[in-house]
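The instructor's notes for this session suggest beginning with a concrete chain rather than abstract definitions. Hand out the sequence below and ask the class to guess, before any prediction is shown, which regions might be ordered.
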Amino acid sequence: MKLYIKQKVFSWNLKFTVKDEYGQDKYFVEGEFFSWGRKLHIYDMRGNEVASVQQKVMSFMPKYYVLVNGVQIAEIVKEFTFLKPKYRIDGLNWDINGDFWSHDYNIMCNGNLIVTISKEWMTWGDSYELDIANPQDEIVALAVVITVDCVLAAQNS
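After discussion, reveal the predicted structure:
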């Protein structure tokens, strides 16, 4: 299953849609700019919130919580490194590795592929392609990838 996110839409206060492999809108993402800590909400196209991301305030390194149906299922922590970004995903037993700056990385669980993220050049303009192995992981994988990209975008601005 593939999802596409248009390049340079990542911002905590922007609104954007996530498309499926047929170019149809599948999810709507909206950020809260004026809140205690940054927050993102992911909605299905009927307007139901399917996931949210909340920043932990007062943290040495960036830390975010992924919630599905109001229940925290993961914590994403940017680890301290000097050369290239590294992230840890607690609560899911997922590992994330690759080149974050060029949007070419994988998320694995016990050696099994969860999602591959890559730059897609010929789809709706420059987009990021999420190739999700199991449809049951779609919402959580989408929330994790959006969080990582938002953290990268925040560091660049």
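Then share the key points. The first helix runs from residue 138 to 156. The chain is about 10% helix and 50% strand.
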